[in-house]
Specification:
Blueprint (H helix, E strand, L loop, with lengths): L2 H16 L3 H13 L1 H23 L3 H7 L3 H27 L13 H17 L1 H14 L7 H36 L2 H21 L1
């Protein structure tokens, strides 16, 4: 791939990552609910799934992936797992609405278990979401000669994706965290928790039905 081709790839990834979708919405909701660490980790799960589909496309395993799609049980396991975690998060946010914490309450410490659950939910999103699957397995091969990708080029492409993830997550998580602090200071964090619970429950339903 030429530098111009890689620049075009970076532009395509930028559009893919910044286009509003359930992944970005869930990342913002997770930040509002549990703080920026969970927002970034959720985004880390999403980029992991994206890199997986890129690797499938480059290594010529698209046909194998399409064949595997016939085994709906594999996709339903990922769908059910991701949706269950999101519904668990939604229930926690709903409880925050039912039993609001005082404005000066200290944020709960980040736990490894909680971060792992957040990461797993993030991974499930691109693995079962048609948007990245179509992009990496159908659109990308139509515009780029993936057979010409070398290990060095692959590393550059992954680096571009990670850079775009860092930019996307910084914008979404950063703005959500500022909003979280403002809502907390204004004493209306309780209602934000209710909205967050509805959003995460809606994303879980979307994950199951798409």
């Amino acid at each position: 791939m030429t530098p111009l081709t890689l620049a075009a790839f970076a532009g395509a990834i930028f559009i893919l990552f910044f286009t509003p979708g359930p992944g970005n919405v869930a990342m913002v909701a997770r930040t509002l609910d549990a703080g920026p660490a969970h927002g970034f980790v959720y985004g880390g799960g999403i980029i992991t799934g994206d890199i997986f589909w890129l690797t499938v496309a480059i290594t010529g395993l698209s046909a194998a992936a399409e064949a595997a799609s016939g085994y709906q049980g594999l996709f339903w396991i990922a769908k059910l797992g991701g949706a269950a975690i999101l519904l668990w998060f939604a229930w926690g946010a709903f409880q925050g609405w039912r039993h609001p914490a005082p404005p000066d309450a200290v944020m709960k410490p980040v736990s490894k278990r909680g971060l792992l659950a957040t990461y797993a939910a993030g991974v499930a999103m691109p693995l079962t979401n048609p948007k990245p699957i179509i992009f990496y397995l159908s659109l990308l091969p139509a515009f780029f000669d993936l057979s010409a990708v070398t290990p060095v080029t692959y590393a550059i492409m992954v680096s571009i994706m990670l850079a775009m993830y860092a930019l996307t997550a910084t914008v979404h998580v950063g703005l959500a965290h500022k909003a979280r602090d403002w809502l907390k200071a204004k004493g209306v964090k309780r209602w934000a928790d209710l909205v967050t619970a509805v959003i995460m429950a809606a994303v879980a339903v979307l994950l199951l039905t798409r």
